[in-house]
Amino acid sequence: MEPTNQKFLERVVSQKALQMGSSFPCQICVVGFLCGVCLTSLFLAVLTSVGTFGFTGISFSSLSMGDSPLNSSSEIINAITSSDYQSKVKETARWVDLKGREPESDDDERVSLLTEAWGALLVDREPEESEFSKRFGLSKSSLPNTPHLENCKLSAQVNKHLDTRSGAGRFPPWTTWKGSLNMYPATETDENLRSFKDQPVSDGAYPPWIVGSDEENYPLTRKVQSDIWKHQHPVNCHDPNIKFLVADWEKLPGFGIGAQLAGMAGFLAIAINEKRVLVTGYFNRADHDGCKASRGSWSCYFFLETSQECRDRAFELITNKEAWEKGTIKGKDSYKSKEIWTAKVPRVWGDPWSYLQPTTDINGSLIAVHHKMDRRWWRAQAVRYLMRFQTEYTCGLLNVARHAAFGKEAAKMVLASIDRDWPKVITNQPKSEIEEFVWSNHRPWVPRPLLSMHVRMGDKACEMKVVKFEEYMELAHRIQMHFPHLKNVWLSTEMQEVIDKTRSYPHWNFYYTNVTRQVGNVSMATYEASLGRKTSTNYPLVNFLMAVESDFFIGALGSTWCFLIDGMRNTGGKVMAGYLSVNKDRFW
């Protein structure tokens, strides 16, 4: 009985359902439900596709202001390794046929390709032509000129030529011809030109590492730099009348690079006053794998202070007891600490510091006279000489920094000036002589005007008055009021809170090195130890040199580092750019 009733009930329900399903309102509901399911499925499919295309490989850090293309540098100060670069290539879409794509997409792909291809040339081991072609579908020769990068190998060769006496003790070719032009082949066959280049340097000639006129530098800068070079490069280092001073760089844990430079400036003053050739010894900050052949030596980063012949002679005399007794050679232990740090400034040039240009602004007023003006002038001269020529390694560090900061902007600029169909259409033109010997002497491109700002806080409070980042930006605004096209800032600081505060200034473009920074107050020695010797040396030097090359500078004169940056700028043609400081030197 029960099965029969169940079948009857099912039959009734089925008929009723059929009647309802055939009604028009029900049909509308069913169609609507099915359309909703289809639209939902389509939406989910599109969302998944967009997510896969747009967000693959992007980390949280790349979404922050600190890594945005216009507002920062994701700089890799330690030289990029091949493995690092290969992983980047895997994350980057291969170049494909761009026909049919939107113009914006075309431009983005071309910019990315050119930026990545330029970056491949900056790795430790530059890829072979076949490897490069496989990665990018391009030959190296097909790449457009890199306006923001320097030919480091060529620069090192030219600088060595300008820093070395030629045969028979002749002076380097410090003529009115600049840089690569001194190596122009035609001058070797023209008798008049060759005679001109072989003439001894005249009193009017000045060192090629000095930029600008006398009015654009500290008083007597060109003459002083020339005289220091002559003093440090005697014709015959084995002359028995030549005396030496051999000194290692200071290596106490609490001493930063600025203190080390100030100490060596003292030794150079002593050497000149005592008519000795200064020979630098162990430089602890160069004692890392990046320096390779010049490990532990100042020559990892900059040209040495004297010739290799004089260095060899000095280190030979170190083991000679009689040389020490006669005073032919002296060392660091020959002098008291006070004699080094407050060394008597050489008076052989008179007192040019008495008429320093008053271009330093503190609290809205120019500082015309202050204590220790002689020390300020001398340290500027000494540091300029010690850092007169960068090595190929230092040049490479700057290339990596500029490419990380400005590479994408440079690529956009270059691509706007060449065939729009690049890289499908490539026109290879041989370099003209004017490109090779004249234009090659121009400095690498950076977005100008560029303001460098060094914000020193942390444990520096025990030595000077520290101020908030907002006060630095008030000074930046003062400059911008006079130069309204200024919007680019190269920011150097050890404090993470400073980097975080840049988000409050969206109308400025901030560039900075991508290194771990301090959170809270720790000693500089502890902070540097956490970074490791290589990074803690490389990234400050890059910031230092970028500050020297910038159009404007804001810092704190109470910081030795800022003090030395100011000195380098004032012996590098930047006197009339002025200097806005948030405080005065603690010794004034």
UniProtKB/TrEMBL annotation:
Example of a GO MF term: alpha-(1->6)-fucosyltransferase activity
UniProt KW keywords: Membrane, Transmembrane, Transmembrane helix
GO biological process: protein N-linked glycosylation
Superkingdom of the organism of origin: Eukaryota
Regions crossing the membrane: 28-55
Name of this protein: Alpha-(1,6)-fucosyltransferase
Taxonomic source organism: Gossypium schwendimanii
